[in-house]
Amino acid sequence: MKLKSIFTICLIAVFAFSCKDEAKEIVADETKKMSETEFNYNVEQFADIKILRYQIPGWENLSLKEQKLVYYITEAGLAGRDIMWDQNYRHNLKIRQALENVYKNYSGDKASDNWKAFEVYLKRVWFSNGIHHHYSNDKLKPEFSKDYLNELLSETETILEGEAFDVIFNTEDSKKVNQAKGVDNVALSAVNFYGPNVTNADVESFYRAKTSPDPKRPLSYGLNSQLVKENGVLKERVYKSGGLYGSAIDEIVKWLEKAQGVAENKEQGDAIALLIKYYKTGDLQTWDDYNVAWTAATAGNVDYINSFIEVYNDPLGYRGSYETIVQINDFDMSEKMAVLSENAQWFEDNSPLMDEHKKKNVVGVTYKVVNVAGEAGDASPSTPIGVNLPNANWIRAEVGSKSVSLGNIINAYNNAGGSGRLKEFVHDDEEFELEEKYGKQADKLHTALHEVIGHASGQLNPGVGETKETLKNYASTLEEGRADLVGLYYLYDSKLQELGLVDDWKKVGMAAYDGYIRNGLMTQLIRLNLGDDVEESHMRNRQWVSAWAYEQGKKDNVIEKVTRDGKTYFNINDYDKLHELFGQLLRETQRIKSEGDYAAVEALVEGYGVKVDQKVHAEVLERNKQFTSAPYSGFVNPVLVPKMNDEGEITAINVTQPEGFPQQMLNYSKNYSHLPVVN
Predict the structure, then answer these.
(1) CA dist 363 to 344, 345, 358, 396, Å?
(2) pTM score > 0.85 for this model?
(3) What three-state secondary structure class fits 229?
(4) Of 137, 407, 465, 663, which is least packed with CB atoms within 10 Å of its CB?
């Protein structure tokens, strides 16, 4: 589960290899090498998007064998990149191919407003892996006309017609994921997990009829398939070699087999072998076997996430989006933060949960700070900053989980921003100074507590089904809010100072509470258009946590809504009582999850997490107009370039940076398009 100068130019030649099928044209564009002192994290900005770049600290400390492992798994991840595009929407690949052909071949007026609008639209499509906004799920609106696009298509001899052309401009398939209450979420979601005539009722009845061989270890039915109707009969199209997305999966397998050959240890190699088997068969029991093996494989410098994993893009929470993250251990930071996982049982025992909802034995929670070496699919260009896997509750309970914080990604975010927006929305100088001094530390700790303690905490009551079955479309936001609340509860606790994680637990906790309430009730609204409801799971959870605490604390004025000079602020008057309120809400959210109480989660999310105070929202948008920094950020990936000897063996792997965002996107399409445009 997820929780964001002048360059020395080095022209990298085009590497073309002849060594078996390992060779391909790796880099067709210029790349730039940068020293630590020169490194500029900012690439470009357009629409509501800021593109950043990140470094790979510790790369030079890896052995060549370890570098090969990183390279092979990164290539495996990129090989499946187009799967994410097709999962997001059935016409995405066809549209991307046409738009890129225009971009590469148009020789007309590129100074016109129309062409600039076309460029921005294409960049937005690249960033979102499709024509729907990566965060809001709304369809992207082009600021050019049908006639202009037809002109571009004609002049570049590009074909894009029928529904794939029309949908760019019409109101069809307007939401990638529709989480609205009281509608058929599957039928009204454009995401390509379901056939055109499949409904909520179809999905629920189809999976209700499935029984796992071991009910105590339920299989993740629906995770790796598309559900369609053929002649009125529901049928799964399984993602596997020889099945749906088979041509891309075969490429993934090819690179994973190379990775298995340079695994750091037997446990890691065995896990990769099971992942390969899963890709070849699509068997969900093999998926569970792999996750057990992967969770237990904690030794070594290199780790990865690869496959169909997070279910946020499925309105009913069954189907996993393709994603990969390749990571290198940050030993210094991991050693400092390992204290959390070592004390996981203390946190569980001292939580405000009902006794019957606490785990008696929290097992196998490992926490590492890592540096990302490559990402693809649902993790790129927009990336999480922390991940906790596997998602299956029974594996967490019996085997444990792995939690990682993406250290170099967080560092890039921290080095690419400014403090202007913060000054605008803080209540007073004290709040600003707390955030400046303790905010980054509080954010880092919240991510760690959320992933390590939060997602590992609590247990389901005997006989209660998986949350995707009991809590349905509210399962993801409930789980993310629950993990947030675990972090919030313990961020304001002297135990953190006792463990040596902070020097002043109270001030770190105060900064964390200020930032969470400020974001949950105000600043995250800059991501929404005026009049929109909150639909994204994480945004919903931040709002319902904050709004519930504000509402429940009104009688004691725990959080005060202040109006000054026509501007709204939220000021925390009593941090101790807010800590108690977070504890009460944590207790209730765990009860909802443990008991599978759908009515309660619906009331919580719909009552506090969906509707927006329109007056405050309009004010926030107006106040935000003065800032040029975009509200969303994402990344280009470093390029790993292998050097070969005369025998075709890799002798070194260099890390370079792409020339820019368009260059990387075009390079990816050239070298990693392993699917037809219609699947």
Answers:
(1) 8, 8, 13, 8
(2) no
(3) strand
(4) 465
d(CA 170, CA 172): 6
Considering only CA atoms, which of 645, 639, 631 is closest in space to residue 661?
639
In angstroms, the Cα distances linking 92 to 85, 154, 164 are 6, 20, 8
DSSP assignment of 115-162: HHHHHHHHHHHHHHTSSB-TTT-BBP--SS-HHHHHHHHHHTT----T
Chain-centre distance of CA 222, in angstroms? 20
What count of other Cβ atoms lies within 10 Å of the Cβ of residue 356? Answer: 11
Q: How far is CA 185 from CA 203, 209, 223, 422, in A?
A: 11, 21, 18, 36
CA 419 to chain centre: 25
- CA nearest 659: which of 29, 147, 150, 153? 29
Which tens digit of pLDDT belongs to each residue from 487-517? 999 999 999 999 999 999 999 999 999 999 9
Length of the chain: 679
Instruction: Read off the DSSP letter of residue 596.
Output: T
User: Cis peptide before 315, with omega less than 30 degrees from 0?
Assistant: no
pLDDT in tens, 188-223: 999 999 999 999 999 999 999 999 999 999 999 999
In our burial notation (b when 16+ CB lie closer than 10 A, e otherwise), range 300-321 reads: ebbbbbbbbbbbbbbbbbbbbb
